[in-house]
Amino acid sequence: MKWIKDEEFVRGNIPMTKFDVRVLTMGYLAIEEGDELLDIGAGTGSISIEAALHGAKVWAIEREEEGVELIHKNMDKFGVCVEAIKGEAPLSLPNIQFNKCFVGGSGGKLEEIFIYLEQHLKEKGILCANFITINNLNQFINLLKKYQYKNIEAQLVQTSHMDKIGLLKANNPIFIVKGVKGND
């Protein structure tokens, strides 16, 4: 199994889920061949591209034009197909069914996204999100409970990487949260 390093992605001024967090997020999503993933707030498409490389059919929604362009460039670079949609959640979300959903950005519309997921995320589907703020983390966990998601997990990831002279440079701490829709 190949994992893409951050420096391999075509990058711009759009946020990207970094390697360490991306690998853990993919693990929480349990992406497998044949999965159907909706990536909301896809940024550069790093989660979408990794999921497609692991055999998932992927829809990626991103509100920034630069992000959509980067997703297309990364699709071409890695030879995968992702349905990239320019728009905002939930208004521009596709009318499809899927079994995995990742929220990398919500535009402040978390509750509206949960309402959309009620009709579109399949029963026992996995919902995973990354947050940098405690307020969004708390709101997401409360929404998971309100909408009766099961097997709720949360993790704080703090990573640092050694630079060329041996100094450790810290990345932002990231909360990874996961829940499973419906009954056990």
Automatic annotation (TrEMBL):
Molecular function per GO: protein methyltransferase activity
Pathway(s) the chain acts in: Cofactor biosynthesis; adenosylcobalamin biosynthesis
Keyword S-adenosyl-L-methionine in record: yes
Keyword Acetylation: no
InterPro entries, alphabetized: Cbl_synth_MTase_CbiT, Cobalamin_biosynth_MTase, SAM-dependent_MTases_sf
Family matches, as Gene3D superfamilies: Vaccinia Virus protein VP39
Record's keyword terms, sorted: Cobalamin biosynthesis, Methyltransferase, S-adenosyl-L-methionine, Transferase
GO biological-process terms attached to the record: cobalamin biosynthetic process; methylation
Name of the protein in its database record: Precorrin-6Y C5,15-methyltransferase (Decarboxylating), CbiT subunit
Source organism: Alkaliphilus oremlandii (strain OhILAs)
